[in-house]
UniProtKB/TrEMBL annotation:
This is Alcohol dehydrogenase. GO terms for molecular function: metal ion binding; oxidoreductase activity. Gene3D superfamilies: Medium-chain alcohol dehydrogenases, catalytic domain (3.90.180.10), NAD(P)-binding Rossmann-like Domain (3.40.50.720). InterPro entries: ADH-like_N (IPR013154), Glu_dehyd_C (IPR031640), GroES-like_sf (IPR011032), NAD(P)-bd_dom_sf (IPR036291). Keywords: Metal-binding, Oxidoreductase, Zinc. Residues 146-345 form the Glucose dehydrogenase C-terminal domain. It comes from Arthrobacter saudimassiliensis. CDD domains: glucose_DH.
C-alpha cells in the first residue's frame, strides 16, 4: 500500500513509499482513501516545525483532511461497505484528562492528545486506513465532491458554536461579521456566517478568485485593512495568524463584540501595541477575544449539517486543484490562485 510520509523534524524527508497495511489495532473499520486535502499545518509538519511520529516509529504518515469509503465494517458498527466517511482527526490522550474523558478532546487540558497525520498517529494519506466507528462520520453520497472539505469546516463549526455560546452571556443580536483571510478556513467562516443571515465582510490582500468566491456567496470583499474600512463588526473571525492582522482583529472590535482567533502564528515577530488603549477599548466595550483549535464529534456533525442541502456548488469551487496520487509531489508545489489542493487517492 502506498502512503505519503515524513520524518518529523527532517524537512527533506517527504516521500511516497510502500507501507504495511494498517494494523487491526488501529480500528475495526477498514477504509479506502478517496482524497486528502492539504493545509498550512501539513506544510509545518513537512518543514519540520511541527508533528511527531507514532511511538516507536521514525516516520509519520501525513494527512488529516480526508475522505474515504468503507471497505469492511463490523455488523454492529452502523456502517456498511461503500459508505462515505470522514475520519476524526484528534483522539483523546491515552490516559484522558477530564475534558477528553467528557468527549471534548478538542479542549484537551494536558496536551496529551494525538492527531492523525500531525501528532503521534499516522494520517490519512495512505491507500487504506482504519478507525473505530465512533472516530468516523458518515456522509450522504451527494456530499462526495465536497466531503474532503469537512475537516476544515469542523474547525469553523466549532468557532461559530463557541461564538454563539459566548454570545449567550448577555443580549447579543449580531448583524455584521468580519473575517480576516480568504484562504479555505476564512472562506468557510464566511460560508457559515452567510448561513446565519449575517452581513459578512472578508478581508484579504488582492482581488482574484477568492474575491469572486466571497461575492458569489453574498459577502463583501475588502482589499483595505479592517481599521481602514472603519467597520465595527459584532463578530470577528481571524484566520491568518499574521501578527499585524491579529492586532487589527483584536482592536477593531465593536461594542459587545466577540473576536475568535483561529489562525496559528509562528511567533518571533514583534508588533508594537498600546496595551493600555487596547485594554480600555476592550473593557469599556465588553469585548471578548478567544482562541479555538480542532473540533470534536459534535462539530463534525454540525459541519455535516451545514454542508447537507447547502451551497455545495460554491463549496466545490474551494477545491482549485486535484492531483492524482501518481503525481503527488505536484500537490506540494504551491501555485498562484491555489485555494484548496487535494490529492486524489481514488485513481491510485
Ligand atoms: C487541524 C486541526 C488541528 C490543528 C493543530 C489544523 O490544521 O485542522 O484539526 O488540531 O491543525 O494541529
Amino acid at each position: 500500500m502506498k502512503a505519503i510520509s515524513v520524518i518529523p523534524g527532517d524537512p527533506d524527508s517527504l516521500r511516497l513509499a510502500d507501507f504495511k497495511e494498517p494494523r487491526a489495532e488501529e480500528g475495526s473499520v477498514l477504509v479506502e482513501a478517496l482524497a486528502v486535502g492539504l493545509c498550512a499545518t501539513d506544510r509545518e509538519v513537512i518543514d519540520g516545525g511541527h508533528g511527531e511520529a507514532p511511538e516507536g516509529h521514525r516516520e509519520l504518515v501525513l494527512g488529516h483532511e480526508n475522505l474515504g469509503r468503507v471497505r469492511e465494517a463490523p455488523a454492529e458498527s452502523g456502517l456498511e461497505p461503500g459508505d462515505l466517511v470522514v475520519g476524526i482527526v484528534r483522539s483523546p490522550d491515552p490516559e484522558p484528562c477530564a475534558a477528553c474523558a467528557a468527549g471534548e478532546f478538542d479542549m484537551c487540558l494536558n496536551g496529551g492528545y494525538r492527531e492523525h497525520g500531525i501528532m503521534a498517529m499516522d494520517g490519512f494519506a495512505r491507500q487504506l486506513w482504519r478507525a473505530e466507528p465512533d472516530e468516523l462520520v458518515r456522509l450522504d453520497p451527494e456530499l462526495e465532491p465536497v466531503g474532503v472539505l469537512l475537516e476544515p469546516a469542523t474547525v469553523i463549526a466549532k468557532a461559530w458554536e463557541q461564538i454563539e455560546e459566548i454570545g449567550r452571556r448577555a443580549f447579543f443580536e449580531p448583524k455584521v461579521a468580519a473575517v480576516t483571510g480568504a484562504g479555505p478556513v476564512g472562506l468557510l467562516a464566511a460560508y457559515f456566517g452567510i448561513r446565519r443571515g449575517l452581513e459578512v465582510h472578508v478581508f484579504d490582500l488582492e482581488e482574484g478568485v477568492k474575491a469572486d468566491l466571497v461575492r458569489d456567496l453574498g459577502g463583501i470583499f475588502h482589499t483595505e485593512t479592517l481599521p481602514e474600512s472603519g467597520l465595527e463588526p459584532d463578530v470577528l473571525i481571524e484566520c491568518t495568524g499574521v501578527p499585524s492582522v491579529v492586532l487589527h482583529a483584536v482592536s477593531a472590535a465593536g461594542r459587545n463584540s466577540i473576536t475568535c482567533l483561529a489562525g496559528v502564528s509562528d511567533g518571533g515577530e514583534e508588533v508594537p501595541v498600546d496595551v493600555g488603549a487596547l485594554n480600555k477599548e476592550m473593557v469599556l466595550g465588553n469585548a471578548v477575544v478567544f482562541g479555538t483549535v480542532n473540533a470534536n464529534r459534535r462539530h463534525y456533525l454540525q459541519a455535516v449539517e451545514a454542508f447537507t442541502g447547502g451551497n455545495t456548488a460554491w463549496l466545490r469551487r474551494l477545491i482549485t486543484r486535484t492531483v492524482p496520487l501518481s503525481d503527488w509531489r505536484k500537490a506540494f508545489e504551491p501555485q498562484e490562485d491555489d485555494i484548496k489542493v487535494v490529492i486524489d487517492f481514488s485513481a491510485g
